[in-house]
């Protein structure tokens, strides 16, 4: 961030110094076409430096009478422009500063849009955010079909909006529905889709080996095609506007009625409110900007865009989301270095939901994987799960059927330990029972080679207890995956004090290869994630016992920003698992983990209400039915465990804070005890593993923005009624005492 | 002969030098030819049977949908087999085995080798099987024959290939097939009616066979266009090469060099005795065509691609002993051969580049030893890309694990009687045409060694060294 402060100062002082050598943008004149190449020494972003050099170059090109048209291309193989420079925005301290940045960008792109010489954006690799806004200001766009080529406006995921004309140009280019979809979801659009939508005009295939490397030659080829197109545009051989199809004409006609547009704004607004519960300001501001542009004209539209961009940049939601983005980048790196031996052969024990999920995310990364189960039925079910997971991807066209088959060739299903002597790592995902885990560990250690790592997938059993029977505890590590493994991004890796650094490095390397975001935590009952979740669920049970309906409980939690309500979450996790964990952690941590009555959970399990997997839990699940009804039988059980709520701490807001504060306090305690290495991993683990509200950025960011003192105050109030379950931990008290103390700088 | 020599003199002075070399060698006075001496005097190996090409023929190659339109694949194959019998005067029961290639299979005659052999009047005691390996199917048929003879199992084998693109199997959709098959099993009227009722309009949409890779779903023309772009082959270069192919083919046809073509009386139609796809055009005309696969900026067009063709070919392969014993004068020795395969996506059509150095190495020859090159021309862009790849040290080192490039064949020795672009390319029949042409060119132009190379779908390739039979 400091660096960019310097840049701003630098660029102001050097604004008139045209002679300074250009490091980010250069150009070459090919006949009557100027080819402008962007080549930031690190990643192409719309940094101050890039913008300054671009402005210079554009002025030279416009002033050169020999140039009839322009091609804009990146020299970077993987990216066109990855977006605006986030640091540039974060360096600003007021909304006005950010608004100014936005207006600079708007002005620059307006000049591009009005260029008398046609400009062709030649896109290979990521064309995101500000990069996309740059491209759509150009007169013509050509993109490669590379897998790396994606177009999109991810700003909304950072709590921002496309602040350089995106909210104004996209609706005109794509029509309202497509534009809203793109800007509000932030989804990445692949080249073929982009062509269909009209976002790009022409596609170029990627090339294989030739007389140069495929990457290099593909960029060259893209440039050749773009130069030809630029010439065609200048000579008016290629029309700038495509003849509109009938559907397009009809849509345009319909959209020309103000009440139709109004209807769309309302529908979109409602949908956004339903999905965000009003907790995320960015989508609403985006709708506002689009509306301003279409209904009041471009001047009002651009003004609304720049001002709202400035406002959004200052919101805690945006800061939280940007924090998560940075955290995610950090957790996609291996801080333990490169392992001595790469894991090429993996064995997974247990073909249940978890085991098969782990196998699925391994085989499609080219890791040879043995999936072992004890019964043919179990194995068959597991292999089917892997097949289905991959086959569903072929239906979505993200992989071909050939790729599916070739991935599946990495999978070997078996009932015996054949081939384990060649395994580099074994991940066991058998039933959560210490004696079974011990039995498996001993069996496996008898057949694996000395270098092989034994990883155990458990959500609560301490790793050191499992490793107790190991002959080589330095090779034992915990790898806690989240269900469903192919969808959940988080992997929690647990090390004991005996786990070697190389074992950790290896486990992280495997997780990264599997596409996971990784936190590495210390050993202990429940590690980090389960330990945070358990007190919150205990509180949720108490709230149910106090007579709050499961639907109400769900709406209170989702209203706070959790993507899944507490009652639904319990059903997803499994009531039996919740009971099991609550009991285990209750034994380990004592009354602090109390709250709801475990007996209630046990009665549920006895009745067979184990949650979604058994068809009944807090809710009734019927295959093919999206609507869920509350399980009235569960309510009957609740009757016998009924508690009288204390009116002083039972308002909606109180219930929300009772749930959240126990979660947050436990998270901070984990950092205090050294289970967590840093607050960043704590935030990432809570958001990506447990669905902690992303708009709050994780428990630590929440303490920073909410104020530790205010949180402690609330907890003290609850403590008076419930005792030590709400006693703030020391680290939280320290932060409450000294407001300058922050978990995130 | 004189006129032929004159033609070759006009077309390329080098050829006449070779003719002189050949004459000199056949006289046994190779003293003054030290500088251009071959790396090896012969490829005969002690203890290995010499296997010879006695003769080879083919039906005229016709654009699909023309005069052959109403035939079936085995009709064409029969014509080639009968033509071979006529040409060689071979007693029908002297053949030990028949191997035939085909790519797009007619389901009624799935072992087309057997159906054609029976129809051509071969003894019903002669077994026959069909092989398939895309555009190198008849190469596979020939090398299978070589294998049978080398292993001492056979002495005389007929190999060949047929492709019939005028009619291809178009299937009902999978859903429709399923319904129809269930219908067979349905016992009651009710069951049948309910099955019939389940048919939807969409189920009636047929499935067409595509010339596309199964693994990548990319059509071959699309891949060829990308390959040309990868090697920086321009549209102009491709059109020039295509024009060359047609011009040379026309010249060869007019001067009667395509002696492997037999006449074929098509039932209900006239006798056909010439290929009908040879159309030398002008560069201007060719430049007008729009790209056929990658639009709008692609370079592969209908004019610089091989066209869909009907045709069949056949060769008689024997052990040298047997051939001589039967009183034949063989045309050539079939020597070392290789099959290669590589990435079916980005290197689909680079077979010749991979196969050429490998087969040369195997036989102990260098590119300079080869007097006659016959490469299968799938697309002009594909040939030009292969030539560039063979000329590139970087490509040889980066992708083939070789120290140096093999070098590109000199154009004056290359496909000088036309190629698949102009003569036509009935997929499974092309291999025999290439081998027979090499034998004929070695005889006519003079020379000792010839090289056949071809690419094939699936990212596979083949090359074979052929040695002239001493005259």
From TrEMBL, chain A:
GO BP annotations listed: fatty acid beta-oxidation
Annotated metabolic or biological route of this protein: Lipid metabolism; fatty acid beta-oxidation
Record flagged with keyword Lipid metabolism: yes
Signal peptide: 1-21
One of the Pfam families matching this protein, by short name: 3HCDH
Residue ranges occupied by any 3-hydroxyacyl-CoA dehydrogenase NAD binding domain in the UniProt entry: 346-523
Superkingdom classification of source: Eukaryota
GO cellular component: mitochondrial fatty acid beta-oxidation multienzyme complex; mitochondrial inner membrane
Site annotation Important for hydroxyacyl-coenzyme A dehydrogenase activity: residues: 480
CDD domains given in the database record: crotonase-like
GO molecular function: enoyl-CoA hydratase activity; long-chain (3S)-3-hydroxyacyl-CoA dehydrogenase (NAD+) activity; NAD+ binding; transferase activity
InterPro entries reported in the protein's UniProt record: 3-OHacyl-CoA_DH_CS, 3-OHacyl-CoA_DH_NAD-bd, 3HC_DH_C, 6-PGluconate_DH-like_C_sf, ClpP/crotonase-like_dom_sf, Enoyl-CoA_hyd/isom_CS, Enoyl-CoA_hydra/iso, Fa_ox_alpha_mit
Keyword line: Acetylation, Fatty acid metabolism, Lipid metabolism, Lyase, Membrane, Methylation, Mitochondrion, Mitochondrion inner membrane, Multifunctional enzyme, NAD, Oxidoreductase, Phosphoprotein, Signal, Transferase, Transit peptide
SUPFAM superfamilies named in the record: 6-phosphogluconate dehydrogenase C-terminal domain-like, ClpP/crotonase, NAD(P)-binding Rossmann-fold domains
Protein's UniProt name: Trifunctional enzyme subunit alpha, mitochondrial
Organism of provenance: Cyprinus carpio carpio
Organism lineage string: Eukaryota, Metazoa, Chordata, Craniata, Vertebrata
Automatic annotation (TrEMBL), chain B:
Gene Ontology MF term list: acetyl-CoA C-acyltransferase activity; acetyl-CoA C-myristoyltransferase activity
Alphabetical list of PROSITE patterns matching this protein: THIOLASE_1 (PS00098), THIOLASE_2 (PS00737), THIOLASE_3 (PS00099)
All copies of domain Thiolase C-terminal, residue ranges: 328-467
The organism's taxonomic lineage, starting at the top: Eukaryota, Metazoa, Chordata, Craniata, Vertebrata
Compartment(s): Endoplasmic reticulum; Mitochondrion inner membrane; Mitochondrion outer membrane
Claim: Transit peptide is one of the keywords in the record: yes
Record protein name field: Trifunctional enzyme subunit beta, mitochondrial
Protein species of origin: Cyprinus carpio (Common carp)
Protein's UniProt keywords contain Iron: no
Cited function: Mitochondrial trifunctional enzyme catalyzes the last three of the four reactions of the mitochondrial beta-oxidation pathway. The mitochondrial beta-oxidation pathway is the major energy-producing process in tissues and is performed through four consecutive reactions breaking down fatty acids into acetyl-CoA. Among the enzymes involved in this pathway, the trifunctional enzyme exhibits specificity for long-chain fatty acids.
This protein's pathway: Lipid metabolism; fatty acid beta-oxidation
UniProt similarity note: Belongs to the thiolase-like superfamily. Thiolase family.
Top enzyme class: transferase
């Amino acid at each position: 961030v400091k660096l960019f402060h310097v840049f701003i100062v630098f660029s102001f002082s050097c604004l008139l110094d045209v002679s300074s050598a250009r490091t980010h943008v250069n150009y070459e004149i090919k006949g009557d076409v100027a080819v402008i190449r962007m080549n930031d020494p690190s990643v192409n972003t719309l940094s101050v430096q890039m913008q300054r050099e671009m402005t210079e170059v554009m002025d030279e090109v416009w002033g050169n009478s020999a140039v009839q048209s322009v091609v804009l291309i990146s020299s970077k193989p993987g990216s066109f422009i990855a977006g605006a420079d986030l640091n540039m925005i974060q360096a600003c301290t007021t909304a006005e500063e950010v608004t100014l940045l936005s207006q600079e960008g708007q002005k620059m792109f307006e000049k591009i849009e009005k260029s008398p010489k046609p400009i062709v954006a030649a896109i290979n690799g990521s064309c995101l955010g500000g990069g996309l806004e740059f491209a759509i200001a150009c007169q013509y766009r050509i993109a490669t079909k590379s897998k790396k080529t994606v177009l999109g406006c991810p700003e909304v995921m950072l709590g921002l909006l496309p602040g350089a004309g995106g909210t104004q140009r996209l609706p005109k280019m794509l029509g309202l529905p497509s534009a809203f979809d793109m800007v509000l979801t932030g989804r990445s659009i692949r080249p073929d889709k982009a062509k269909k939508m009209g976002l790009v005009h022409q596609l170029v295939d990627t090339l294989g080996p030739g007389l140069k490397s495929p990457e290099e030659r593909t960029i060259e080829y893209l440039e050749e095609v773009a130069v030809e197109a630029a010439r065609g545009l200048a000579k008016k051989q290629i029309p700038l506007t495509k003849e509109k199809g009938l559907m397009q004409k009809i849509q345009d006609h319909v959209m020309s009625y103000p009440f139709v547009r109004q209807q769309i704004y309302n529908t979109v607004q409602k949908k956004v409110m339903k999905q965000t519960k009003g907790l995320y300001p960015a989508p609403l501001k985006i709708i506002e900007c689009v509306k301003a542009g279409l209904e009041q004209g471009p001047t009002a539209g651009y003004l609304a865009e720049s001002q709202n961009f400035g406002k959004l940049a200052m919101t805690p939601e945006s800061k939280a989301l940007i924090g998560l983005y940075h955290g995610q980048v950090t957790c996609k790196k291996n801080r333990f270095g490169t392992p001595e031996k790469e894991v090429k052969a993996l064995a997974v024990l247990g073909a249940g939901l978890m085991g098969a999920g782990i196998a699925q995310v391994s085989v499609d990364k080219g890791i040879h994987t043995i999936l072992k189960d004890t019964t043919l039925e179990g194995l068959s079910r597991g292999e089917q799960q892997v097949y289905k997971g991959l086959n569903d991807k072929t239906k979505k066209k993200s992989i071909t059927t050939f790729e599916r088959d070739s991935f599946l060739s990495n999978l070997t299903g078996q009932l015996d330990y054949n081939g384990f002597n060649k395994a580099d790592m074994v991940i066991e995902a058998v039933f959560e029972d210490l004696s079974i885990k011990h039995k498996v560990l001993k069996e496996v250690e008898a057949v694996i080679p000395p270098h092989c790592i034994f990883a155990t997938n458990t959500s609560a059993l301490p790793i050191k207890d499992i490793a107790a029977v190991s002959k080589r505890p330095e090779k034992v590590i915990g790898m806690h995956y989240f269900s469903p493994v192919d969808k959940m991004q988080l992997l929690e890796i647990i090390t004991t004090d005996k786990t070697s650094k190389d074992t950790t490095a290896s486990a992280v390397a495997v997780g990264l290869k599997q596409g996971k975001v990784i936190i590495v935590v210390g050993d202990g009952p429940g590690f980090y994630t389960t330990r945070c979740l358990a007190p919150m669920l205990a509180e949720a049970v108490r709230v149910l016992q106090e007579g709050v309906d499961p639907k109400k409980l769900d709406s209170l939690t989702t209203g706070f920003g959790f993507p899944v309500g507490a009652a639904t979450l319990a059903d997803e996790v499994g009531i039996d698992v919740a009971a099991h964990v609550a009991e285990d952690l209750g034994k380990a941590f004592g009354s602090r983990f109390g709250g709801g009555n475990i007996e209630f959970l046990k009665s549920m399990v006895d009745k067979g209400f184990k949650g979604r997997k058994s068809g009944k839990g807090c809710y009734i699940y019927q295959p093919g039915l999206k609507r869920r009804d509350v399980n009235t039988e569960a309510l009957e059980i609740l009757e016998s465990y009924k508690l009288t709520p204390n009116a002083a701490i039972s308002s909606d807001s109180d219930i929300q804070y009772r749930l959240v504060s126990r979660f947050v306090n436990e998270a901070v305690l984990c950092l205090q005890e050294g289970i967590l290495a840093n607050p960043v991993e704590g935030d990432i683990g809570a958001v990506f593993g447990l669905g902690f509200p992303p708009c709050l950025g994780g428990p630590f960011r929440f303490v920073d923005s909410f104020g530790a003192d205010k949180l402690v105050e609330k907890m003290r109030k609850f403590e008076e009624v419930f005792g030590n379950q709400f006693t703030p931990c020391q680290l939280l008290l320290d932060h409450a005492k000294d407001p300058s103390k922050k978990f995130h700088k | 002969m004189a006129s032929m020599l004159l033609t070759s003199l006009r077309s390329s002075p080098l050829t006449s030098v070779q003719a002189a070399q050949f004459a000199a060698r056949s006289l046994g006075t190779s003293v003054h030819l030290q500088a251009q001496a071959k790396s090896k005097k012969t490829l005969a190996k002690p203890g290995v049977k010499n296997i010879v090409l006695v003769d080879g023929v083919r039906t005229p190659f016709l654009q699909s949908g023309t005069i052959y339109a109403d035939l079936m694949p085995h009709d064409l194959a029969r014509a080639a087999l009968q033509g071979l019998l006529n040409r060689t005067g071979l007693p029908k029961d002297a053949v030990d085995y028949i191997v035939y290639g085909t790519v797009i299979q007619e389901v009624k005659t799935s072992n087309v080798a057997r159906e054609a052999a029976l129809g051509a009047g071969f003894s019903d005691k002669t077994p026959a099987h069909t092989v398939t390996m895309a555009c190198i199917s008849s190469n596979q048929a020939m090398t299978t024959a070589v294998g049978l003879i080398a292993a001492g199992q056979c002495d005389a084998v007929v190999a060949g290939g047929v492709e019939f693109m005028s009619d291809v199997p178009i299937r009902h959709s999978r859903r429709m097939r399923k319904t129809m098959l269930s219908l067979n099993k349905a016992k009651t009227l009710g069951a049948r009616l309910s099955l019939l009722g389940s048919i939807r309009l969409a189920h009636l949409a047929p499935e067409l066979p595509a010339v596309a890779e199964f693994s990548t779903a990319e059509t071959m023309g699309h891949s060829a266009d990308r390959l040309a772009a990868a090697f920086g082959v321009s549209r102009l270069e491709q059109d020039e090469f295509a024009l060359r192919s047609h011009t040379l083919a026309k010249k060869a046809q007019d001067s009667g060099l395509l002696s492997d073509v037999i006449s074929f009386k098509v039932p209900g139609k006239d006798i056909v005795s010439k290929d009908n796809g040879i159309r030398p055009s002008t560069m201007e005309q060719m430049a007008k065509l729009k790209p056929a696969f990658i639009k709008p900026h692609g370079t592969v067009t209908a004019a610089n691609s091989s066209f869909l063709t009907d045709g069949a070919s056949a060769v008689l392969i024997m052990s040298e002993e047997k051939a001589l014993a039967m009183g034949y004068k063989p045309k050539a020795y079939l020597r070392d051969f290789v099959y290669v395969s590589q990435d079916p996506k980005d290197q689909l059509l680079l077979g010749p580049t991979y196969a050429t150095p490998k087969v040369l190495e195997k036989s102990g020859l260098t590119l300079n030893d080869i007097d006659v090159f016959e490469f299968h021309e799938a697309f002009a862009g594909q040939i030009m890309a292969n030539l560039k790849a063979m000329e590139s040290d970087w490509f040889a080192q980066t992708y083939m694990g070789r120290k140096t490039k093999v070098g590109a064949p000199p154009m004056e020795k290359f496909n000088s009687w036309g190629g698949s672009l102009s003569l036509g390319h009935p997929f499974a029949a092309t291999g025999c045409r290439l081998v027979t042409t090499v034998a004929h060119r070695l005889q006519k132009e003079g020379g000792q060694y010839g090289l056949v190379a071809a690419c094939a779908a699936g990212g596979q390739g083949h090359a074979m060294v052929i040695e002239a039979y001493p005259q």
